[in-house]
Design goal:
The complex is a heterodimer. By secondary structure, chain A is an all-beta fold. In chain A, about 0% of the residues lie in helices and about 50% in strands. Chain A is built from no helices and 12 strands. The radius of gyration of chain A is 14 Å and the shape is globular. Chain B is an all-beta fold. The chains are: A mainly beta, B mainly beta. Chains A and B meet through strand 6 and strand 11 of A and strand 5 and strand 10 of B.
Chain lengths: ~120, ~110
């Protein structure tokens, strides 16, 4: 079965420091992996996705994610955090497998708090 | 473009009452979804649709019904609300199923 895990409920980081939000996955076949962000009182917004190719994927708002097949991880990163990055971050994979992307399954979310 | 809109934004129901949540999208997307978001559980898929006139069950469909009579609209119905259905409901749409666009959410409180 397809699944993702976000091991940290919350990540705290000082503004200007690098940030990492962790995600591990379990999928059959080649993984498609996604990151979404939810700002307070808003719906989720797409950040980036990995389908194939380079292991480092660049997305919106200066975020990037590193795909690591041996560790089955897809961690979200940003070199220098901003207070405005404070939000809830979700990792996701297709529920039906690599070639059935009409549904996504989301992780439980990680709250990122960036302190001034 | 308004994107994905949801009506209403907030609603309070008594146990046993019924209601319908409306989702509308103006992006001509084929796929539409209803999720519920609960603390510590992330987003869970209730029902979804891969095109006008089609619906399918997601992870947590019990107690909900949906209809997709028009391509741009996806309705979520609660026939007899229960306190366990207190949640924040999100609608989303997608062209291909991968990148989904979410509405602002509906907060539902069932007393």
């Amino acid at each position: 079965a397809q699944s993702v895990a976000q091991p940290e409920d919350q990540v705290n980081v000082a503004e200007g420091n690098p940030l990492t939000v962790k995600c591990t996955y379990s999928v059959s076949g080649n993984p498609y992996l996604f990151w979404y962000v939810q700002y307070p009182n808003r719906g989720l917004q797409f950040l980036l996705k990995y389908i194939t190719g380079d292991n480092l994927v660049k997305g919106s708002y200066g975020f990037e994610a590193e795909f690591n097949k041996s560790q089955t991880s897809f961690h979200l990163k940003k070199p220098s955090a901003l207070v405005s990055d404070s939000a809830l971050y979700f990792c996701a994979v297709p529920l039906g497998g690599t070639y059935n992307t009409d549904k996504l399954i989301f992780g439980t979310g990680t709250r990122l708090q960036v302190f001034p | 473009n308004a994107g994905v809109t949801q009506t209403p934004k907030f609603r309070v129901l008594k146990t046993g009452q019924s209601m319908t949540l409306l989702c509308a999208q103006d992006m001509n997307h084929e796929y539409m979804y209803w999720y519920r978001q609960d603390p510590g559980m992330g987003l869970r898929l209730i029902h979804y649709s891969v095109g006008e006139g089609t619906t399918a069950k997601g992870e947590v469909p019990d107690g909900y019904n949906v209809s997709r009579l028009k391509k741009q609209n996806f309705l979520l119905g609660l026939e007899s609300a229960a306190p366990s259905q207190t949640s924040v409901y999100f609608c989303a749409s997608s062209y291909s199923g991968e990148t989904q666009y979410f509405g602002p959410g509906t907060r539902l409180l069932v007393l």
